[in-house]
Amino acid sequence: MIKGIISYDISIDRYRNKLSRILSNYCTRIQYSVYQFELDEKIYKDMLKKIEAFYRNYLRYAYTSANIDDITRSIYIFLLCEGCFNRKIVFDKRVKNSNREMII
Fold first, then answer.
1. What are the boundaries of each domain within the chain?
2. For 80, which of 30, 50, 84, 93 could close a Cys bridge (C-beta 3.0–4.6 Å)?
């Protein structure tokens, strides 16, 4: 299984919503623009292809609009080993973490 976190900074609603729909098919949303995933390799590669295609289309739009702010937007994918993925600490009263729970 491939595990990780995806974070994005997309300013245009239409594109941000499209990326969110793509990620919702593969990942669990943990923050507004942050998702976590645990996928087998084939499904991970499928997700990655869709993200790459999305980003190419987004950049094409951004360069055509000539808005430097849109051009500098990003998507980060952090791959995590099993140990790191399981050692996460969650500070959220809605989520129970098998390792630790803290209600603030």
1. 2-86
2. 84
